[in-house]
Amino acid sequence: MGYPREQSIQQATEVFWLKGYLGTGMRDLQTALDKRPGSIYSAFGSKEGLYLEVLNHYTGVLHGQIMAVANSDTPLQQLREFLRFPLTVEDSAAHKIQCLIVKTQADWAELPEGVKSELQAALAHLREAFQAVILKARSTGELAADIPVERAAMWLQGQFIAMRTLATSVESPTSLSWMVDKIVSDLSGEWAQ
């Protein structure tokens, strides 16, 4: 049964998000995509090729969400809303709390070099979007004019990763709502030069 490529990528995303890169087998992908292995190999070359397309799509969506924060008139308020996402995920989609990139990175030592390289590129691309948030908040006066943009963006990305990871291990992600406010408050605080 043939599906548009985008639908196959969406279906594969769910599998990789649930099982991780290493935990996902071709049979899992075959079932999710309702395709024979030959069709998957023909369309994507390999499991790695399919994952890289999933990663590219996922990174693009996440980058777009962060850039929407950067392009808003009130970036810090929009940042709060963006960071609150894991606190609102329904139980049926709990696997989506953790960032797909971070989930894959958990198996770093065993990942193929091509996947490692693309994960690093994805994180760098997202860090650029976090830099855009910092720059916009600085230009609107929500952050100090002398905030170190690259360091603040890297710190913010780390907080985003920590929030998404921690939210998977607590009984109720909503119990972490204080953390979102703390992240934004700390971002607005003093930065040592």
Automatic annotation (TrEMBL):
Entries under InterPro entries matching the protein: Homeodomain-like_sf, HTH_TetR, Tet_transcr_reg_TetR-rel_C_sf, TetR_C
Pfam families: TetR_C_13, TetR_N
Annotated signal sequence range: none
Record-annotated HTH tetR-type domain positions: 10-54
Residue ranges constituting the Tetracyclin repressor-like C-terminal domain according to the UniProt record: 75-176
Presence of the UniProt keyword Repressor in the record: no
Alphabetically ordered keywords of this record: DNA-binding, Transcription, Transcription regulation
UniProt superkingdom: Bacteria
A molecular function GO annotation: DNA binding
Name of the protein this chain belongs to: Uncharacterized protein
Organism (species): Alteromonas alba
Lineage of the species this protein comes from: Bacteria, Pseudomonadati, Pseudomonadota, Gammaproteobacteria, Alteromonadales
